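Thread: Newbie trying to understand structure tokens

Hi all, I'm a second-year student working on a class project, and my supervisor (Dr. K.) asked me to get a predicted structure for one chain before our next meeting. I've only ever worked with sequences, so writing a 3D structure as a token string is new to me. If someone could post the tokens and maybe explain what I'm looking at, I'd be very grateful. Here's the chain:
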Amino acid sequence: MIEVKNLTKTYKTGNKALKGINIQIQDGEFVFIMGRSGSGKSTLLKLLLKELEPTSGQIIVNDMDLEKMPRRYIPKYRRRLGMVFQDFRLLKDKTVYENVAFAQRVIGVSPREIKKNVPEMLRLVGLSSKYKAYPNQLSGGEQQRVAIARALINSPEILLADEPTGNLDVHNSMEIMELLEEINRRGTTVLVVTHSREIVAEMGKRVITLTRGVLTGDQKGGIWHEN
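---
Reply by user tm_fold:
Sure, no problem. This is what the structure looks like when written as tokens:
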């Protein structure tokens, strides 16, 4: 479970990105985090990743208080999370296979296990036939599938996706969301930052809404609510 208690983040510029928000997300949930630009959505994800530290408040992930986590444990904690970025961030000089395998090599997985795990993951995201392709030979939707495969290859408990369909057309966007839904059905908790009302309405999931750093909505059923 993810529990956010009275969380506040103020940057050195004086910008108050988050203002005392409280959220609970249960294991296995699929949750959209919505809001306009500057609402604090991406800041919340960075705090969950421990890329940022809160000004005040608590974040507890599966009974771990992130503020009390020793620095040496942070890499291990992050391996329990998968992160998908809007801009894909693929290694342009590496094939699809090599991009996904890279995430395992950096944590010391054996070559034998990599040869087993990567093809299985590429089948899950529908890219078995593209394993030799380079990023510039893929469509935008296919590149995003590679990014999702790389985020999932180490079996994270939680998948964080920051605007994963922001650069895609409607058709590819819905394909990516259906893939994330399938991943969720397999037991992974999924948090998706988006500003697309159409996707949220179509998916019918829980929606947490932030407005200028304040929690203004927490609804189920794909309802957009903002004051």
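A couple of things are worth pointing out once you decode it. The CA atoms of residues 30 and 129 lie 29 Å apart. The beta strands are 2-10, 16-25, 30-34, 56-61, 64-65, 81-84, 158-162, 189-194, 206-211, 214-219. Feel free to ask follow-ups in this thread.
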